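Handout, section B. The chain below has 64 residues.
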Amino acid sequence: IPLGSRERAVLVQIGDEQILLGVTPQQINTLHKLETPLSVANSNGISSDFAGKLRKIMQQRGDK
C-alpha cells in the first residue's frame, strides 16, 4: 500500500510467517510480525480488505 510519494507498506510472506514492512528509498523496517496470517488468495494476490486490516493492526499497536 502506498503511504506517500515514495513510502510503502508491504506484506511479505515467508513460509507460514507474514511480516509487515515499511519501505522507503533509504531503508526497510519491520513494522509488525503478524501472529495470525492474513488471507491474500484472490486473483490479483491482494486482499480486498488489506487496508482495513492494516489500519486495525496499526491502531492496536499504537495502543500498547
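Note. Helices lie at 50-63. Compare this with the example in section A.
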